[in-house]
Amino acid sequence: MANIRVGVLGIGSMGRHHVRNARALEGFDLVAVADPGGDKFGVAGDLDVLGSVDELIAAGIEAAIVAVPTVFHEDAALKLAEAGIHTLVEKPLAGDLAAGQRMTEAFEAAGLVGAVGYVERCNPALLEMRKRIADGQLGEVYQVSTRRQSPFPARISDVGVVKDLATHDVDLAAWIAGAPYELVFAQVSHRSGRDHEDMLTASGRFTNGILVNHLVNWLTPYKDRATIVVGEHGALVADTAMGDLTFFENGEFALEWDQIAAFRGVSEGQVIRYALKKREPLAVEQGNFRDAINGLSSNIVTMREGLDDMRVVEAMLESAATGESVKL
């Protein structure tokens, strides 16, 4: 099977990592890069830095990775779809639902692979967590909780913390729970003087009854990335920044200390931290994109799924603006 000719649009903070991985990935030939802002990270190597998506298409690519700011996703994606080019667009899919709908329909109508870069689905801790849940380790799942907190990233200017960060958690939580969102309630704040929100607390419920909550902000002076799933047999806790997974098992022994027993729904059992094979999630994501193009797998996050994530994110913003919960 011949290698796929790949181009990367946008070689800034995120795109530079796509360039590095595309160069190294078996089955990909990185043949072109484009960025109107030039190559500030020096990743182009011996490739000319093209100035537009049109020039990228003219380079004869068969697949594209789009890592430009969100507001430019639709224009680039529609041109790539018209040219018959399989495309992976960085999350979120688009700046608004109408744009995301147009993009999704364009790729579906053309019979092309249209993927969204929700890289957390390729995190080794979350992959292992999802497998263990599917195997019944937790029994019935009760709740999914996420934390995604860090200092403000200077690279972000076109969207707030909900569309930039919370969209990751919206996608991974529904993927882990195995069901879409049914209801959300959210609150946001603007503490740093910027136009967009920088802090979110959100809660909700999936259609299968599992509860969900998210804590997301750009105002924490350390990086915190956690996904916690609680079920009838215990809890699985993923540190997604490090790719670590720990199982906290419900205890099998009755508590004989009355003062503690009165405050506990379950007792503490064994704690197991799993040793995992860790591969860079972005490399896994690109490999899934390559395999989908070759008709070998369906492990990508489709544009249709990315559109569903956008609906939840928009519902969160609506809830925050109205003070009411929103049914999806």
TrEMBL record:
Q: InterPro entries per the record?
A: Gfo/Idh/MocA-like_OxRdtase_N, Gfo/Idh/MocA_Oxidoreductases, GFO_IDH_MocA-like_dom, NAD(P)-bd_dom_sf
One GO MF term on file is: nucleotide binding
Q: Which residues form the Gfo/Idh/MocA-like oxidoreductase N-terminal domain?
A: 4-118
Q: What name goes with this protein?
A: Gfo/Idh/MocA family oxidoreductase
Q: Where is the GFO/IDH/MocA-like oxidoreductase domain?
A: 127-236
Against PANTHER family, the record matches this protein to: BILIVERDIN REDUCTASE A
| UniProt signal peptide | none
Pfam families to which the protein is assigned, alphabetical: GFO_IDH_MocA, GFO_IDH_MocA_C3
